[in-house]
Design brief:
The protein is mainly alpha-helical. It has a domain of 125 residues: Arc Repressor Mutant, subunit A (Orthogonal Bundle), CATH 1.10.10. Helix content is 49%, strand content 7%. A 3-stranded antiparallel beta sheet has the order 1-3-2, with helices on one face. The protein starts with a helix and ends in a 42-residue tail after the last helix. The relative contact order is 0.09.
């Protein structure tokens, strides 16, 4: 990333050159008509690549351009990339949406921005986009390029722009971080595949035990009593 002292010196030279040119070409302009972020309130810090990011977004959301919606988020953020949206109707109106479906239209644009990787969101009391984290446009544009979702001409302008404003080091850092992450994931997947290939096969379940034949039920036929002993006719039994 760019050295802080070098960047500060470059900004100072640019400011001095701009002031010299202003004194030559517009010497009589009153200071009240000139915006100065050190003197005026209500300013924000935004990435210089934001206009290119807006064009890339609009190219991927034809019929429902969402670039201006992103700009309104940056214009509303408190000089910090995290923000809380408590009144979606206000953001919808500033993005140019009116009518009874203004908030619904704004939410559709927000979904586009989230799908393209320009913000993260969490639900809250005001709905799906209550908590917002704005992503670095340099990383988001590079992600679009990696997914082949940005035109070559526009991406070429992006590369030229970050070279001009000294942020090409940021892009290099993103690329290195993403490559390291990809290598780590590939290594983890290879280890998991190797572990699965070397594991002992799981034996099949044992066959079910053979079924024993059921014993026949006991006979339900009552046994007949034995016939009584016959006493020969004419023979009397002796008395004890």
């Amino acid at each position: 990333m760019a050295n802080g002292n070098q960047a500060a010196a470059k900004r100072l030279k640019m400011a001095e050159r701009a002031q010299n040119q202003l004194d030559i070409h517009f010497p009589n302009i009153h200071q009240l008509w000139v915006w100065n972020r050190k003197r005026n309130d209500g300013w924000i810090t935004i990435p210089r690549t934001l206009p290119i990011a807006m064009q890339a977004i609009d190219a991927q959301s034809k019929g429902a351009p969402a670039g201006h919606t992103l700009f309104c988020l940056w214009a509303r953020c408190p000089d910090h990339v995290f923000m809380t949206i408590e009144h979606p109707a206000t953001f919808a109106a500033e993005a140019g949406f009116t009518g009874v479906r203004a908030v619904d239209t704004w939410r559709k644009r927000m979904k586009i921005l989230r799908d393209l990787g320009f913000l993260l969101s969490k639900p809250g009391p005001s709905g799906e986009f209550h908590y917002i984290l704005l992503m670095n446009p340099i990383a988001s544009i590079e992600r679009l390029h990696d997914m082949k979702l940005i035109q070559d001409g526009l991406y070429s302008r992006f590369i030229d722009r970050i070279a001009e404003n000294g942020s090409h080091g940021d892009l290099k850092a993103f690329r290195e971080a993403w490559e390291a992450d990809r290598l780590a994931k590939a290594a983890a997947a290879a280890m998991a595949a190797a572990a699965g290939a070397g594991a002992a096969p799981v034996p099949p379940p044992p066959p079910p035990a053979p079924t024993q034949p059921a014993s026949p039920p006991p006979s339900t036929i009552a046994s007949e009593p034995a016939p009584p002993a016959l006493v020969p006719t004419g023979i009397a039994a002796k008395a004890d």
